[in-house]
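Quick check before the chapter quiz. The format below is the same one you will see on the exam, so make sure you can read both the input and the output lines.
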Amino acid sequence: MTLPIPEPVARKAPPRFTRIPKAPFLPPYRPDHPSAQTPPGTVIEPKLKKKLGRGRIGIDARIDLHGMRQSEAHAALSRFIHARAARGDRTLLVITGKGGRVPLRDEDLLVSFERGVLRGMLPIWLSSPDLAPLVAGWDSAVQGHGGDGAFYVRLKAPGRIAPGRVKP
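Here is the expected output.
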């Protein structure tokens, strides 16, 4: 007497878990259209940017926000801009860093997302009611001054700032 041979049972492979990135506290600032990048009147004139890049116009002050947390960077930027506006400076260089890309490996797909939190938040901070009355415009810096990891910030002339807006 022969016993029947059992058929092999097909087993499903256990599901593969992939690491899902945590969402940032605030989404990075991403304009849909170049004209929507900044409110009207906040872009530095192209001639001025070219002169800054060539060194014909000097940068009055610099601040490096690298390595700071978002709250620390915002407070430092606010203090810096108020102090420089009170002093009468016009052209500032704000270094934010480019941010990094964190690669996530999926089976056939390499997914990455951008982490440039400070770089994304700078236009929002400069548009805030606290700083907007002092700022005439901003734009990304030329490669020699930091490229995409830095911004030129142009302050309004001392006579054009509304009274009571500059903290001593």
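If your answer matched, good. The first helix runs from residue 46 to 54.
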